[in-house]
Amino acid sequence: MKNLIPHKWSLVMKIFPLVVGVLLTKLLFHSMGWEYISVNSLFTSIISANVFLLGFLLAGTLSDYKESERIPGELAASMETIADECAITYKHKKAKEAKACLHYVAELNTMIQGWLHKKVKTNDLLQKVTGLNDFYLAFESITQPNFIVRLKQEQNSIRRFLIRIHTIRETSFVAVGYAIAELTTALLIIGFIIAKIDPFYESIFFVGIAAFLMMYMIALIKDLDNPFDYYEGEKESAHVSLTPLIDLEDRLHDKLKSLK
Question: What is the pTM of this model?
Answer without folding.
Answer: 0.82
